[in-house]
Amino acid sequence: MHTPKNIEIPVSRLSYNTIYTQRGRFDGEIKILYCNKKCVLAARNSVPWMLFVVADFNQNDLISAIGDDLYKIKRLVVQSTFEAGTESDEVVFHIPDWLLALKQLESLRFEQIIFDDLWLFRAFPVRELAFNKVKCNNEDILGNPILQFKELSAITYDDSLPQSLIDKISLSKPDLKLTFEA
């Protein structure tokens, strides 16, 4: 019997990157339309639906790959990194102009970022807000826009939001569902 030499045995190597996101509830068939180290675009029933971005993402590559369908996105998740198991420092996030073109956003989630311009989204049909390890330089800069969302029905938050802000929101919007997420 012939014994193959090492050079005759094919070698396969797998190389992959893992992107860590908390996707929440998905209804329908979900597919990944676009993915790189700073952005993941998921589609529900073949329509762009949920966008995950890190704070320093630039949309140019995504727009050239997806086109105008990008503006049909319903959910946006902004987080400091996609690396699993890393406790990165919070990243300052300034909402770029191109995100303001996503007029159909119904859900916004912010993770491990520092930001002060939530008010830019207040005219959007946002129904759900989620905050995880976020910081804001001024409680009113975050709280006042939250009270201005007309269709808002739920907020998920952790202990990074001050209790005084949660109390203010619950008094002003008693029908709003507030969920603490440890």
Could you write a compact summary of the structure shown?
15% of the residues lie in helices and 26% in strands. By secondary structure, the chain is of the alpha/beta class.
Tell me what you see in this structure.
The chain has helices spanning 60-66, 139-148, 163-172, and strands spanning 30-36, 39-44, 47-54, 75-79, 91-92, 107-111, 113-114, 128-132, 154-157, 177-180. It is an alpha/beta fold and 182 residues long. It has one domain (27-180): Ribonuclease Inhibitor (Leucine-rich repeat, LRR (right-handed beta-alpha superhelix)).
SSE order and pairing:
Elements: E1 30-36, E2 39-44, E3 47-54, H1 60-66, E4 75-79, E5 91-92, E6 107-111, E7 113-114, E8 128-132, H2 139-148, E9 154-157, H3 163-172, E10 177-180
Helix pairs in contact: 2-3
